[in-house]
Design goal:
Helix content is 33%, strand content 19%. The protein has eight helices and eleven strands. The strands form three sheets. It has a five-stranded parallel β-sheet, covered by helices on one side. Strands 1-2-3-4 form a four-stranded mixed β-sheet. Helix 4 packs parallel to helix 5 and helix 5 (163-174) runs parallel beside helix 6. The model is unreliable at 119-126 (pLDDT under 50).
């Protein structure tokens, strides 16, 4: 950000992503080169910035934006309250012929939710905002993609989708007029034996967890989470025993890493 400002002093620098959401206030306080943070609903925030990028007087209209005022104090606008309905993508064969001639693996990502459902994930950045799409919306999108491209493989995004919504979507998958295979994001809070069995029976093949770290000290003291490594181990073992492939994401390095972590 500093290098960009040095070369183009009048440019605006905005940051989005997990670290920006969690530590946006610290970033703005310590780095004068950063003008804004795209917070808990980054899609809506980035869309607003695209419209008002060069008009800072209108930044207060952009949902979920953390920025500096003219007096150099921090200003945060309310986050979006609804999650946009994404239409299924339609590729023109002249642009992407492989999708229509059988040469493309047809795996589509569908977003069930965004944000954080658990207040334990508030780590000093912007407060959690959780938005979700209904199961009928997702089912309709699956049907549309299948009609367009014959799609039967999906990845479901939404790490903090509640257990009930996970089970409801699994039931919807079992009720589709064609068999599906899918993977999904989830959290160790939401995985119990009945849910794992329901997922496995509905065509789910893999689960992706954001585990952050394998160190309890780092998990508690640095990330501020309220779950334990022992619980993670039990959860992952449960999934593996049900025949589900398990993918874990970790953040490394972090400032508190030492020999033990």
């Amino acid at each position: 950000a500093t290098a960009l400002k040095r070369r183009w002093p009048d440019c605006c620098v905005a940051i989005a992503g997990e670290m920006a959401r969690c530590f946006g206030r610290q970033i703005l306080a310590r780095c004068d080169a950063v003008d804004a943070i795209c917070g808990s609903t980054p899609e809506a925030t980035i869309a607003g910035l695209a419209v008002h990028w060069n008009n800072r007087s209108a930044w207060h209209q952009i949902p979920g934006l953390l920025s500096r005022t003219a007096e150099q104090t921090l200003a945060e606008t309310p986050s979006a309250t609804t999650m946009p309905t994404h239409a299924p993508p339609i590729y023109h064969p002249d642009v992407y012929p492989a999708l229509l001639d059988g040469g493309k693996f047809r795996l589509f990502t569908l977003r069930q939710s965004t944000g954080y459902a658990h207040l334990g994930h508030y780590r000093g950045g912007q407060r959690p905002v959780f938005l979700s799409r209904s199961v009928p919306q997702l089912r309709s999108e699956m049907l549309a993609l299948h009609e367009l491209y014959g799609t039967r493989t999906f990845h479901i995004e939404g790490e903090h989708t509640p257990e009930k919504a996970i089970n409801d979507l699994a039931g919807a998958c079992k009720g589709l007029p064609f068999p599906v295979l899918y993977s999904r994001d989830t959290h160790v809070f939401e995985i119990r034996p009945k849910t794992v069995a329901h997922l496995s029976a509905s065509g789910c093949q893999a689960l992706r967890f954001s585990l952050l770290t394998g160190s309890q000290m780092t998990l508690t003291d640095f990330f501020g989470e309220n779950w334990t490594i022992s619980h993670v181990e039990r959860c992952l073992r449960l999934c593996r025993d049900a025949g589900l492939f398990v993918h874990g994401d970790f953040i490394h390095p972090v400032p508190v890493d030492d020999y033990h972590t």
